[in-house]
Design brief:
The protein is an alpha+beta fold. 45% of the residues lie in helices and 13% in strands. It has 13 helices and 18 strands.
Length: 590
């Protein structure tokens, strides 16, 4: 079985169990179901919790102390991918360095004798935010804000420790209960976390590679640019939006369209996404800043994010922006009025004034001046036309305030006319010089108000259409650029391949020419050597032939009787001054 070292990532095919270079226990690549096994002689596997893209999580019991834990092992089918192994080790390293109450706790890490890579963490009892939204729907805003603030505590410690999570989403925020029954948040899954400043992490995420879940990706991550602290906070804001509205602000049928929405679209108001919810209007302002397209326009740190969220909640408590609007009813005159009656059906002026009192504004705003008696019919007609044309969506506090003043006056007048001779409130006296407007003037003003409302609605519709056309144009331009970039990239890649093939062919031809030239040179040298040896042999034969001829000639010239003696040199070493009489030979008998 092939094994590899989790430190140096060298592979071994023999029977080694430890790396000869660094002594680390080697990791194997076979896979099996661990339920029922005693892992590493310490953890009894009780059951399967779940499977992910990188690991398998089991419910295990540490037998020596009886502690129940969540045991995560690296999937064997991806064990050959060194980047996945590094991410697994990075996740363990990231969790081990964090101590926040709102971050899942790491207990142990190790490698079994058969090469299984694992770590254990606390076993949680509860549901993820994703499960809560699916099962219970949107949460009330006080609880949603409290859960997000707890997640902020986990991210604050991670960012201070130089760790980016890069995959914040409801499924990675787990909600359990503490001993008092209160919600307790735990941030999970640091599988694609990045250790800022760790150079060994550089190869885990290549330039242009997108890491994370598309529905929660920040614009810079969607473009494949480096993520930062502001990226985690963008994902956390998307999570808050989904917890409040029941679904994220951007939804599309393909990941590419979803990424384009992150890049180009503004998040809709919470009540526009889900009209059934009641949330403070100040949260929309907070979310617009938290979901800004440019990182510098967002909250840059967890503390700034937390302060902005708490400030939005405080402003709502000081000046609530959510209220119930009384039901509209048709009057005998054909206008729509707000009915304020008690259980007996009588008009209560105090109740009417209290119910129609507008929401308090900031102290920097000034109250509207009172309306004169002469303008009451015109105001009522204008309010009715605006309500009919625009509906409750365009009902504004100033209209409610004007309607309150107008209703006070008309209710007082009606009560004075129909009541018994008991003491009555003093009616508002109209100036003698003023007269009620005639019916034609009233109808003209009502028509003018309706026309103005219609023009305003047409203008708003035109603006929405223009905005939609602009967004469509931007999306088309973005897609066109993407297609053009992809085509350019494909053309460049094809050109590089053609150039590489041509270069390879040229190199092959050059190598072939060099080989042919070398072979010719070697053949020429061999031929020259053979020719030289042949000439040497011929010269040698010729010399031997001359010697034989000379020897034969010398033998023919010997004196008679000279064959009985052999002449040998007595001293073959030449002398400096030889004796002319001494020829260096001695004659011996045979």
């Amino acid at each position: 079985m092939e094994r590899y070292c989790p430190k140096c990532f060298n592979t071994f095919d023999g029977g080694e169990t430890t790396c000869p270079d660094d002594g680390a226990t080697l990791v194997g690549s076979d896979d099996r179901d661990l339920v029922g096994e005693l892992l590493d002689n310490r953890y009894r596997i009780r059951g399967l919790v779940g499977k992910g893209g990188m690991g398998v999580v089991y419910h295990a019991e540490q037998e020596i102390i009886g502690r129940h834990v969540a045991l995560k092992v690296l999937r064997r089918d991806i064990v050959r991918d060194t980047s996945q192994v590094k991410r697994f080790l990075t996740e363990a390293k990231a969790i081990a360095s964090l101590t926040s109450l709102h971050t899942v706790t790491l207990y142990d890490f190790g490698v079994t004798s058969d090469g299984l890579l694992y770590y254990t963490m606390e076993l949680l009892d509860g549901r993820s935010l994703g499960e809560i939204i699916d099962q219970d729907g949107p949460l009330p805003y006080p609880r949603a804000i409290e859960l997000i603030l707890q997640a902020c505590d986990s991210l604050a410690e991670a960012h201070d420790s130089g760790i980016l999570h890069r995959d914040i989403k409801p499924e990675n925020i787990f909600v359990s209960q503490d001993r008092s029954g209160e919600d307790l948040v735990k941030v999970l899954d640091f599988g694609i976390a990045k250790l800022m400043g760790d150079q060994s992490m550089g190869t885990l995420t290549q330039t242009g590679m997108i890491c994370g879940t598309p529905a929660y990706l920040s614009p810079e991550q969607a473009l494949g640019n480096p993520a930062g602290k502001f990226s985690d906070l963008y994902s956390l804001a998307i999570t808050l939006y989904e917890v409040l509205a029941g679904k994220p602000p951007f939804v599309a049928d393909t990941p590419m369209k979803l990424l384009l929405k992150h890049l180009n679209d503004e998040p809709p108001a919470l009540t526009e996404t889900n009209p059934q919810i009641t949330v403070p209007g100040t949260l929309d302002g907070f979310l617009r800043k938290a979901l800004a397209k440019e990182p510098e326009n967002r909250y840059g740190t967890v503390n700034a994010f937390r302060s902005g969220l708490e400030e939005a909640l405080r402003l709502h408590e000081e000046a609530p922006t959510t209220r119930h609007i009384p039901q509209l009813q048709a009057s005998a005159q054909g206008t729509r009025t707000i009915a304020i009656t008690d259980e007996a059906g009588t008009v209560d002026l105090a109740t009417a004034k209290t119910a129609l009192q507008p929401t308090p504004r900031r102290q920097t705003e000034t109250a509207s001046p009172p309306i004169s008696r002469r303008t009451i019919p015109w105001v009522l007609g204008l309010a009715a036309a605006a309500l009919v044309a625009g509906g409750l969506a365009i009902w504004q506090p100033w209209a409610v305030e004007h309607a309150a003043n107008a209703t006070d006056a008309s209710i007082s007048h009606e009560a004075a006319r129909q009541s018994t001779p008991t003491p009555k409130p003093a009616p508002v006296a109209a100036p003698a010089a003023e007269k009620a407007p005639n019916e034609a003037e009233f109808e003209a003003r009502v028509q003018e108000a309706e026309d103005a409302a219609r023009r305003r609605l047409d203008a708003e519709a035109a603006q929405r259409a223009a905005a939609a056309a602009a967004r469509s144009k931007v999306e088309q331009e973005t897609l066109r650029k993407a297609v053009k970039e992809a085509a350019t990239k494909a053309a460049d890649e094809a050109r590089r391949k053609v150039e590489a093939v041509a270069a390879t062919k040229a190199a092959s031809e050059a190598a072939a020419r060099d080989a042919a030239e070398e072979a010719a040179r070697v053949a020429a040298e061999k031929k020259a050597e053979d020719e030289a040896r042949r000439k040497q042999r011929e010269a040698k034969k010729e010399a031997e032939a001359r010697k034989k001829i000379e020897a034969k000639k010398a033998g023919d010239k010997k004196p008679p009787g000279d064959d009985d003696f052999v002449t040998i040199p007595t001293d073959p070493t030449p002398k400096k001054d030889p004796d002319p009489a001494d020829d260096g030979f001695v004659t011996l008998p045979e």
